[in-house]
Structures are given as C-alpha cells and as structure tokens.
C-alpha cells in the first residue's frame, strides 16, 4: 500500500513537471515567433503574440520581456492609428460602406459626424436641409488597458462605459467601430453577440 502511494506521488510529480515543460516549450515557441514578426516590423501580429506569451507565464524572463514589448508596441500602434484617425469622419451606417445595404441605411433628417483630435472625440449632427451643425457630445480619448476583451491596443472607453474596438482599412479612409464590451461597477462584460457597430468615411 505504501509503495502504491509513493508511485502515485511520483507519477503526479512527473505529470506536473511534464505539463510545466510543455508550457515552457509552447511559451518559447510563441516568443520566438513574436520576435520574428517584431524584427519584420509587423507590430500588430507581434503584439498579439507577446501578449499571449506574457499570459502563459508573466514571471519568467521571457514573460517579463514580453510584457515590456507589449507596453512598447501599444504606444507605437496607438500613435500610428491615431495619426491616421485624426480628422473629420461622416457616419455611413452600420453596414460596410461597399455593401448595398449601406446605401439605404440613413433615412434620418440628420447626418452624423465625429471629429477625432489627439485627446478627444467630438460628436456632431448636421441637418440635411439647413446644414446647421450641432455639437451633441464630447468624449475624452481613453484607451482600454484591461487586456481582457479583445484587442490589446485599439479599444477606447466612452463615458457611458461602452468599450469600442476601432480599426482602419488599408487606405485609412474607412473607420470601423464595434462595441465589444461594457464597463460596469463589477468589472468588464464582453459583448459576444449582436455587437453594435458603425462605419465612418473620412472627409
């Protein structure tokens, strides 16, 4: 009986170390892949992989370096997307601007616009007939750094607690925003189905 107990303990120990070794091998392989993307300046793929590496084991040397790389790339990527996003955008609806549904999407008497600045977003509406422009609200540009929704760098939090993932097309003339989560008093709740989204065209 005593021998059986010892065997069980030994087997459990080997299993634990085996899983630990597999975890380290997986972390190292993802880290090396992230470094390869980093060297090629493919920072979007690199940051996602570094983030994964940091989640696997943030306390070891590779994990710590991955955390630092995520922080560095986050600054670079946010600056890049902001530089391309600064300006005025007209809302095209909640369908891709190339779709047929988009053309018949806006039956309102007003056109919606946003003006993106370095530290804030201004929301306007313009009367289609009178062309009168009215500021409807102003939002501070606050990034989501909680790391538990989706994107590591391109989400912003509005004053109502909604969290939006922002992305630009290759020409940086179409902006897509998707409501991916909401921040409440108890934490952040992901929105997994029927996410609200909008498309904007730069003008």
Query: What is the global morphology?
Result: elongated
Largest sheet report: 9 strands, antiparallel
Number of strands: 9
- What is the first-to-last residue Cα distance? 79 Å
List the total number of helices: 4
**Fraction in helix:** 25-40%
Low-confidence stretches: none
Q: What's the alpha carbon Rg, rounded to whole Å?
A: 23 Å
**Beta-strand residue percentage:** 25-35%
Helix-and-strand structural type: alpha+beta
What is the H/E string? HHHEHEEEEEEEE
The average pLDDT is 86
Task: Describe the structure in your own words.
- The chain has 203 residues and is of the alpha+beta class.
- 40% of the residues lie in helices and 30% in strands.
- Strands 1, 2, 3, 4, 5, 6, 7, 8 and 9 form a nine-stranded antiparallel sheet that branches.
- The longest helix is centred in the N-terminal third of the chain and has 38 residues, at 2-39.
- The relative contact order is 0.10.
Structure keywords:
203 residues, elongated, nine-stranded antiparallel β-sheet, alpha+beta, single chain, 9 strands
Task: Summarize it.
The protein is α+β, with helices and mostly antiparallel strands. The chain is built from four helices and nine strands, in the order αααβαββββββββ.
Chain-wise SSE layout:
Layout: H1 2-39, H2 43-56, H3 61-85, E1 87-93, H4 100-103, E2 110-116, E3 120-127, E4 133-140, E5 155-157, E6 162-168, E7 174-184, E8 187-190, E9 197-202
Antiparallel strand pairs: 1-2, 1-9, 2-3, 3-4, 5-6, 6-7, 7-8, 7-9
Helix pairs in contact: 1-2, 2-3
